[in-house]
Amino acid sequence: MQITGTQLIGSQDIPGTGAAFHAIDPATGEALPPAWQGADAGLVDRAARLAEAAFASYRETGLEARADFLEAVAQAILDLGDALIERAMRETGLPRPRLEGERGRTVNQLRLFARVVRDGDWVGARIDRALPGRTPLPRGDIRLRHIPVGPVAVFGASNFPLAFSVAGGDTASALAAGAPVVVKAHPAHPGTSELVGRAIRRAVQRCGLHEGVFSLLAGPGHELSLALVGHPAIRAVGFTGSRQGGLALMRAAAARPVPIPVYAEMSSTNPVFLLPGALAARAEAIARGFVASLTGSAGQLCTNPGLIIGLDGPDLDRFVRLAAEGVGAAPAATMLTAGIARSYREGVERLHGHAGVEPLARGAAGQGPAPCQAGLAATTAEAFLADPAGLGAEVFGASALVVRCASPEELAAVARALEGQLTATLHLEAGADDALAAGLLPILELKAGRILANGYPTGVEVCDAIVHGGPFPATSDPRSTSVGTLAIARFLRPVCYQDIPDGLLPPALRQDNPWGIPRAER
Amino acid sequence: MQITGTQLIGSQDIPGTGAAFHAIDPATGEALPPAWQGADAGLVDRAARLAEAAFASYRETGLEARADFLEAVAQAILDLGDALIERAMRETGLPRPRLEGERGRTVNQLRLFARVVRDGDWVGARIDRALPGRTPLPRGDIRLRHIPVGPVAVFGASNFPLAFSVAGGDTASALAAGAPVVVKAHPAHPGTSELVGRAIRRAVQRCGLHEGVFSLLAGPGHELSLALVGHPAIRAVGFTGSRQGGLALMRAAAARPVPIPVYAEMSSTNPVFLLPGALAARAEAIARGFVASLTGSAGQLCTNPGLIIGLDGPDLDRFVRLAAEGVGAAPAATMLTAGIARSYREGVERLHGHAGVEPLARGAAGQGPAPCQAGLAATTAEAFLADPAGLGAEVFGASALVVRCASPEELAAVARALEGQLTATLHLEAGADDALAAGLLPILELKAGRILANGYPTGVEVCDAIVHGGPFPATSDPRSTSVGTLAIARFLRPVCYQDIPDGLLPPALRQDNPWGIPRAER
Question: DSSP string of B15-68?
Fold first, then answer.
């Protein structure tokens, strides 16, 4: 498939009229052909109107048809072959194994949602049968199902050009819910985005769906994003990116004549608590794992462990020494864009220049326009508690801060001072650390969407029980997850039918349950 | 129990320092003792901090303990005896049978949520077992449960002094979710609110719960409401009231440093579509039922049928004539407050004075400071479509507008022009009206949370399958319901636990499932 630099509006390729831009190879700074012209407000309107037109039929697709479509998208992505991986490598600087793994995750995610669609649990069907003899008043027949909220705008993330982008988790869960999707591609990987967009379009066509089920817009600026979120046909938003970007979308969505929900996954420092028993038993192994988790993908992961919190003492010293050695030995890496590399460099400089912070190590300095030089620093709980916003702020990239605590009470105080997080990690030793862990868990539950033990927060499983979400500012809405099957719930709303004749009910609620889905009946 | 005019802050009675106010008997204008002094910002802070302090223990109450508490609240309300009904009659002008029925509903609702708590479905437990042999990477043990979002602020509604007030649906569902509640009483029925508040407090004490599980604030102005929604310890808001009030809370919640969800149930005209077959078969019965639904409780119901839409012709004429007779014969009623009566009078005058509207009937004019004179008017689809915001606006009270449509296409166009609604009703005759109904249903599903046939929208069942919600501006959030067992979901968020040792897991997720709750395991 060719990359043409056009906008994919339903089944049509339409050139934009907005500002021109190229993908840039972050390793070399080279502009990659072709040139794009950004989508304008007219194309936003066409894509959103098409999505609205597609909504009527797409939201009532049967379980099999919708699941088949998700599987067809997965297959069409695989059919792109190595051209997809090669383009993504050029556009993102990410290495081949990472991108091949991410493609597998993207495809598996689509197939997982196909299973979810077929299971039919997502319908959340409930039936309260009529009680004609009830006194003082009879009860009618009342039936509930969930329907999609309407067309969804999805914003591709910079750091997952496949799994959190055009056919990523937001798109997969919205399509599974029965919502047409308009994606705004991340401008750092427009070619990768176009290839995947064409794969989705091919699946739409193969499955005989309305062309408006999917459109792809690309453009460099914020205006396009705000026009999309402000469009009356758009009914929900999925976003993964910076806090600044997420907050802007939240404001725009709340200011609409009809406000809509925004699911923005924004920023997180993913605190890791090193409890004394665990440190005593295996400081070396923990440090090794930490350095690998911190520096993989140049640290450009939402769940990157940016904050390490431990009780002062020789075992923590040992961990710090080993971690500093590991970070110092970290090779230079290429970041996704020159802008991200600049923000990273400024963030590390600000952190390492903070009065309360002791710089511990820097990795190898890199070449090219978007180098990542890993960084490790330390501070005290006292200094952290004096400036939790400053020292707790995410530095997107391979930078972490160790917070030395003088007592278990200080450790708990640091936990309480944290902002909302995607994850919180405990390294603990059964028995020795139980009391401390039991005291921390109730605090961390209120701070994070996922709590893990004796592991690292990077590498998020895509499964039924995962939560990739958490209290603000980690996300805009802690009642949801953007990874895993529960993500479908974000794009659904309940509707109930009272005394509607059976022939007029949707299949999910008919007397004979033609879809064979689970229904809670009373 | 005495009504003292104090604020109920946990276990303490504390006088406010804000503006003084009384309850007013809307039938006579008489000020009812005692006097209240409104809660000030200091009391908001005390109540919210107490709720935060109670959250740690209350959110981890076992299923039995929490269910027992809800049942104890129900019993304590019944123990108030007739004093509650008498006070509510004086404060609201609502008649005894209505208030006795509402008390029954309030008590049953609490008991229903006790059942929900015991069932344990609300935990939404999911378990993905470890796959240690998976390649290329093993999977950890991942377990998900839902926990409450935190303390909830509930705003009592004017029109349901019991069922949507201090111990109403919002409070019952929040307490069921494990969230402490701070209620702001509606200033129109502070004595009723205090009695119910004391009943809840008694249940808190009997069950040995932390006093901060419940507090009750009262005050006349908006400052108190905004202080409560802005308090950092408050994590969600339940509100039933005017659109203006709901929008103000939404703005305040979005502007917080940490935004929080607002579940505001605001306004709805509850369109009723009279299809030709049904009108031909039983215009008389439909008109009778409509007038009863319109005028009951002086029309002061969120689901009051304010918009009647039918195909022009002799059958619709017959309905209109009979409905006009019924409305014309409607006795005067007392509204909840003089302010509501004034808004109602102005709303009817505006509607009946609209250039495109033909006034059809007025009921008996009332006496006293808060009279409700029922009203019926008619317009054409053409006029409605020219000003859907003006003619589709809710007039809170016993006023309705008939929209005459020249064709099925116009009927569908009116449906499409509607704002978001709590309900939409179809009167239909099997066979004759099937095609028209089948065309309307997909439109109405996107407009309303509940669709009913051959009935009236007033009289909302409290059950598992009910939805009392709907797209903006009917509510602030169409993904939820404020009536029925699904309402508990509003106050929950998912948290997942990865590789946490069994002894540190919450009971809901432990290996041996000590709570015996349903869990989705893979």
Answer: ---S-EEEEE-TTT-PEEEEEEE---HHHHHHHHHHHHHHHHHHTT--HHHHHH
- The complex's ipTM works out to 0.97
B201 contacts: CB under 8 Å, gap ≥ 6: B8, B11, B211, B214
Q: Are strands A12-14 and A7-9 parallel, antiparallel or unpaired?
A: antiparallel
Residue position matching structure tokens 């949602």:
A113
Which backbone phi and psi does A445 adopt, to 5 degrees? -55, -35
> Does any CB of chain A come closer than 8 Å to the CB of residue B174?
no
Contact A412, A385 (CB under 8 A): no
Residue B84: CB atoms within 10 A of its CB come to 23
DSSP-assigned letters across all residues of B205-237: HHTT--GGGEEEE--SSHHHHHHHHH-TT--EE
Q: Looking at the annotation, which residues of A are catalytic?
A: 265, 302
Contacts of A496 in chain B (CB under 8 A): 449-451, 465-467
CB burial readout B180-216, b (16+ within 10 A) else e: bbbbbbbbbbbbbbbbbbbbbbbbbeebebbbbbbbb
Strands A421-427 and A236-240, sheet pairing: unpaired
Q: Which of B470, B273, B309 is nearest to B388 (CA)?
A: B309
Of B328, B333, B293, the closest CA to residue B423 belongs to: B293
Alpha helices in B271-375 (DSSP H): 276-295, 314-328, 338-352
Q: How far apart are CA B152 and CA B489, in angstroms?
A: 13
Nearest CA in chain A to B479: A493
Distances in Å between the alpha carbon of A361 and those of A166, A289, A401? Answer: 37, 17, 11
Terminal alpha carbon distance of chain B = 53
* Domains delineated in chain B: 39-131+139-266+477-509 (3.40.605.10), 271-453 (3.40.309.10)
Rounded-to-10 torsion of CA A100, A105, A110, A111: 100
Which structure tokens are listed for B426? Answer: 């179809």
Max CA separation in chain A (angstroms): 80
* Full pLDDT tens readout for chain A, 522 residues: 799 999 999 999 999 999 999 999 999 999 999 999 999 999 999 999 999 999 999 999 999 999 999 999 999 999 999 999 999 999 999 999 999 999 999 999 999 999 999 999 999 999 999 999 998 899 999 999 999 999 999 999 999 999 999 999 999 999 999 999 999 999 999 999 999 999 999 999 999 999 999 999 999 989 999 999 999 999 999 999 999 999 999 999 999 999 999 999 998 999 999 999 999 999 999 999 999 999 999 999 999 999 999 999 999 999 999 999 999 999 999 999 999 999 999 999 999 999 999 999 999 998 899 999 999 999 999 999 999 999 999 999 999 999 999 999 999 999 999 999 999 999 999 999 999 999 999 999 999 999 999 999 999 999 999 999 999 999 999 999 999 999 999 999 999 999 999 999 999 999 999 999 999 998
Residues of B designated as active site: 265, 302
For B521, phi then psi, to 5°, come to -115, 140
Which tokens go with A477? 């809405």
Q: How far, in Å, are A180, A258, B179, B282, B397 from residue B476 at the CA level? A: 23, 9, 20, 37, 22
Distance from C-alpha of B185 to C-alpha of B217, rounded to nearest angstrom: 6
Strands, DSSP E only, in A213-370?
214-217, 236-240, 262-265, 271-274, 307-311, 333-334, 357-362
CB contact under 8 Å between A504 and B464, yes or no, is no
Tell me if chain A has a CB within 8 Å of the CB of B133.
Answer: no
Cα–Cα distance between B261 and B174 in angstroms, integer?
Answer: 13
Which residues of A are less than 8 Å from B495 in CB distance? 445, 448-451, 467
Say whether the peptide bond before residue A180 is cis (omega within 30 degrees of 0): no
Contact A479 B461 (CB under 8 A): no
Q: From the CB of residue B232, how many other CB atoms can be counted at a distance below 10 Å?
A: 14
Q: Which residues pair with A371 in a beta bridge?
A: A334
